[in-house]
Amino acid sequence: MLAVHAPSAVEHGGAIFHAPVSALAFVLTAIVMIVGYMLFGIAMLKARVFPRWSILTLMAGSVLGMLPPHPATPFPWAGLVLGGVLYGAAMCWLGFILWTENRATT
Q1: Radius of gyration of the chain from Cα atoms?
Q2: Which string of DSSP letters, residue by residue, matches 51-96?
Q3: What's this model's pTM, rounded to 2 decimal places?
Q4: How confident is the model over 6-53, as pLDDT tens digits?
């Protein structure tokens, strides 16, 4: 919607890419996502419903996938890719567990 109604705002060097706006948006998103997935992971660990390693993989992937890559920080781009792979693998693992779970319906 923004690109349709205000294309100059989303062009390279446009208003949305100025440091205070884009940095604040990214930092807030990253913090909320990391805290949310950590709390979700802790709750799943306490519930003891899923395998511990699947939950830890999800937590690690969500953190690695939200860290800002180089050149913003010394964290390499490969870490971002690894985070995405870990997150996706954990979601597949947890989804497979739910899909193949043999529970009696009530």
Answers
A1: 18
A2: -HHHHHHHHHHHHHHHS--TTTSS--HHHHHHHHHHHHHHHHHHHH
A3: 0.72
A4: 787 777 777 776 667 677 777 888 899 999 999 999 999 999 999 999
Task: Tell me if residue 6 falls in helix, strand or coil.
Answer: coil
Contacts (Cβ under 8 Å, ≥6 apart) of 75: 67, 68, 69
- Separation in Å, CA 8 to CA 4, 12, 13: 10, 8, 9
CB distance 80 to 66 below 8 Å? no
User: What does the alpha-carbon distance between residue 70 and residue 75 come to, in Å, rounded to a whole number?
Assistant: 5
Q: State both tokens at 84.
A: 């995405």
* Residue 52 token pair: 């511990």
pLDDT (tens digit, 9 = 90+) per residue, 2-16?
778 878 777 777 777
